[in-house]
Write a structure and sequence with these properties.
Blueprint (H helix, E strand, L loop, with lengths): L42 E5 L15 H8 L14 H4 L2 E6 L7 H15 L5 E5 L6 H12 L3 E6 L19 H8 L2 E11 L6 H10 L2 E4 H7 L1 H12 L4 E6 L21 H10 L5 E7 L10 H24 L1
Helix pairs in contact: 1-10, 3-4, 4-5, 7-8, 8-9, 9-10
The structure holds 4-carbamimidamidobutanoic acid (ALG) and zinc ion (2 copies).
The site of 4-carbamimidamidobutanoic acid has 12 residues, from loops.
């Protein structure tokens, strides 16, 4: 069938949902063109169907597909930031990485290699997971491309700085400890946001602090409010190259039930989106949204929330690139 698209700013845009019903056809993120349908792309969206690193409920391997399906309702103009993210620059869906589900080490190597390939032309990468294990190779690629350790804002109920699970060093609970050990994040500018829930012990927090992480808990977001939290985060990041990793379980299970390790007392999707919008202008070099496990979702709640988080992250990337151009 012919694809009628909203082409603005000289870029190939999303399929026009006023001409072709939004539920028709195969899903790409936001109905954007596939990467092979454009000459090149400034922002690439890629899926990583991998969940071999999980410690509890499996299923995040289906996350990217679910987020794409849930993204059909997105529209081309983002009024919250007064930006048309797909008109500013070319945005395209690069499909999924082919990742070995039976070998975590090989999977991590594949993800790093693919992320480097996708960004070789200077493109910004928006990754949809997959479990949180994948943040490590994505951070490796981001810091290699930046030529320096990157600042990190990590939105998550969990610290994910634990040391190992069952003797395994590479899991969804350990990527950020590995990242600190590898020197790929700038420990003057790393922070968790949305942290909550029971830990194994107080040592978890002591270790985390020693690694350099700041913590803004879910309760802090509620008590201090979005603007105050944004000011703290902006101050901490400064003008460093910034990577943002969003574990969808940062949202309360009421907002995002479809995830593997849910914790009560989380942020609302409104708080999450408003914090992201507050980060406008920071030097965002890459981002991921992970831990969407559709088997536990209801009424596409988690898929919709994740698709909107991606949309605001892409808007930040697009706005940044347009302002530099
Ligand atoms: N959802 C992520 N990334 N990590 C959660 C690990 C929680 C645990 O098993 O202790
Ligand atoms: Zn988590
Ligand atoms: Zn996580």
């Amino acid at each position: 069938m012919e694809e009628i698209r909203v082409n603005e700013g000289g870029h190939v845009g999303p399929i026009d949902s006023s001409q072709i019903p939004r539920y028709a056809g195969a899903a790409t993120y936001a109905r954007l063109p596939r990467l092979d349908q454009v000459d090149s792309a400034d922002i690439k969206i890629v899926g990583v169907p991998f969940d071999t690193g999980v410690s509890y409920r499996p299923g995040a391997r289906f996350g990217a597909t679910h987020v794409r399906e849930a993204s059909r309702l997105l529209r081309p103009y983002n009024p919250a930031m007064d930006v048309s993210p797909f008109a500013n620059v070319q945005v395209a869906d690069a499909g999924d990485m082919a990742v070995n589900p039976f070998n975590i080490d090989e999977a991590i190597a594949t993800i790093e290699r693919n992320a480097l390939e996708l960004t070789a032309d200077g493109a910004s990468l928006m990754t949809i997971g997959g479990d949180h294990t994948i943040a490590l190779p994505l951070l490796r690629a981001a810091s290699e491309r930046a030529g320096a350790p990157v600042a990190l804002l990590h939105f998550d109920a969990h610290l994910d700085t634990w040391d190992s699970y069952f003797g395994a060093d590479y899991t969804h609970g350990t990527p950020f400890r590995r990242a600190v050990e590898e020197g790929i994040v700038d420990t003057d500018a790393i922070s968790h946001v949305g942290t909550r829930g029971p830990l194994y012990g107080k040592k978890d927090l002591d270790d985390d602090e020693r690694m350099g992480f700041g913590i803004i808990t879910s309760a802090d977001v509620f008590r201090r409010g979005v603007d105050d939290v944004v000011a703290t985060l902006r101050e901490r990041v400064g003008d460093r190259p910034l990577y943002i990793s969003v574990d969808i379980d940062v949202l309360d299970p009421a907002h995002a039930p479809g995830t593997g390790t849910p914790e009560a007392g989380g942020m609302t999707s409104r708080e999450m989106l408003e914090i992201l919008r507050g980060l406008r202008g920071l030097n965002l070099v890459g981002a991921d949204v992970v831990e969407v496990a559709p088997a536990y979702d209801h009424a596409e709640l988690t898929g919709v929330a994740a698709s909107h988080v991606c949309y605001d992250l892409i808007t930040l990337m697009s706005d940044l690139r347009a302002s530099k151009a």
